[in-house]
């Protein structure tokens, strides 16, 4: 039988474990769990329309722990599409007394802190495990019994924390509770009978006390011996020592718990991915592979879904929900799969698996296209995400006051800081697309792949247009003066400002460097900014790159580039060693001669841009369209940008 990718309940109801602080180590960020007991689990083969029972052989000969002990991942809800889905690692896994156990260590990344805190506080307890089966032992169905398949060789490979596990008992493991016998209730007649007064009998009282003490001692000794039978780690010497010392059973139990916590391997909680989650993951992979989404490779378990049309996937989703599609037309099939008619699904799906598959495919296509679209502005600007849509004030401090001498025995003087504020905010943009029923019947995947990818590229273009528009519109700053202005000492005009491949071009670039060097803070301090980026329109790209090319021979010995990092002979161009980076941007279309000098953003802020916190990049969402029997896809992008300080930018108008 080929390898089967399975997700299974880890702990049956008889061994459910509640969270106990003793299993959580905050210093090491570790917790212990039990990940399999080999319990029998009912399964269903949707292709053959048959039921069968699965049993896992939890023994060292059957379970291959190589992947677990090689650092198997701990995932967030079985998601494995991005490195951020990994929230921890399996430190150690082992088989003990027919149980699969492990130790999990959480990542110390900030985004994992909230999950780790909830696990430590006992809020998140549920787990699920993923594994593959290499060899089955099949017992055919008999009279009154169903088929039983026992996994004789299988390999667990990941653990996940989930909101709702396939088995309610799959939780972080605690130490086993101690059973305490309850006294038998006294008969009602005996409780109600009046008590006759009697005189105490000293002999009888002594005999009764002796018998009670003997019974209590026997119970104590028996209980201590019972602890050794329950926990083989407890030595005979330990038992004998505390029996002879008269240690109470409660005290012995506390000592045993301490020994187990300190010496015994810590049980580890394991997560199991159930059958529905597995099928959804495999269908998702097959659909993305068929849609040729970059970077998606077909995994083994998804091969059975390879090449399925949208109509076929809709039918699989209906069967998975426990309903039948037999006799349905394509329209009825898509309606049922999209959840337009839920009455026959008996609440099997709160959200349509089919619509989720399509939405996830569209979202991934959009994210990939957005991430690969070229954006040149990120090199010379600063990203700052905002928490909401309110105006954000960027305060540029004027610099510390000048230091002054302090006389012997004198007192330091307080000084005030001057500042100027620029404000900007986020803008929400988007587009709505209708994917028709006809497109789904025709198996047209472009609505879920190509079109979202185009939206992703459009979002990246919108960002570039917004940022470079700030340079060309030259809007007023908070002081009422435009960004590039003679009053800001950052605007060069006239013939000497042209970018040419000779001494004139060198002087034009030098003028921008001079502006940046001599900029001052509001308190009068010279900032001495360094020119790091030369931003030019497409018309000046060749001249700019020639100016900084090692293959260019200057027209005269006096045309040496002062931005060079070396002192080569005049027959070679020392511009090649310059720290100035040339950025060519086709969106600078207002002027074919104007170009810009930008300081290093590590020295001074120039343009700030950002997203709504938690919404980095465009987001796609889908909903059912009851009017057209299709789906609506909406792309929303939240982005903003603003020039926050003119002191780090200078403009040359050109010839």
**What fraction of the residues are assigned to beta strands by DSSP?**
15-25%
If you average the pLDDT, what whole number results?
76
How would you classify the helix and strand content by structural class? alpha+beta
Helix content: 25-40%
Shape, please?
flat
Treating each run of at least 4 consecutive H or I residues as one helix, how many helices? 14
**How many individual β-strands?**
22
- End-to-end gap: 77 Å
Quaternary state reads single chain
Major β-sheet annotation? 10 strands, mixed
User: What is the CA-based Rg, rounded?
Assistant: 37 Å
Uncertain segments are 7-21, 173-200, 342-351, 563-572
Short structural summary:
This protein is α+β, with helices and mostly antiparallel strands.
Q: What are the key terms here?
A:
single chain; 655 residues; 10-stranded mixed beta sheet; 5-stranded mixed beta sheet; 22 strands; 27% helix
Topology of this protein?
Layout: E1 4-8, E2 24-25, E3 30-36, E4 41-45, E5 50-56, H1 66-69, E6 73-76, E7 86-96, E8 99-106, H2 113-120, E9 127-139, E10 147-161, H3 188-192, H4 202-230, H5 236-245, H6 249-263, H7 275-290, H8 310-320, H9 330-338, H10 353-372, E11 382-383, E12 392-397, E13 419-424, E14 427-435, H11 437-441, H12 450-473, E15 491-492, H13 503-518, E16 531-536, H14 541-547, E17 581-584, E18 595-599, E19 607-611, E20 619-625, E21 630-643, E22 649-652
Parallel strand pairs: 5-10, 6-10, 11-19, 15-22, 16-17
Antiparallel strand pairs: 1-9, 2-3, 3-8, 4-5, 6-7, 7-8, 9-10, 12-13, 14-21, 16-18, 18-22, 19-21, 20-21
Helix pairs in contact: 4-5, 4-6, 7-10, 8-9, 10-12
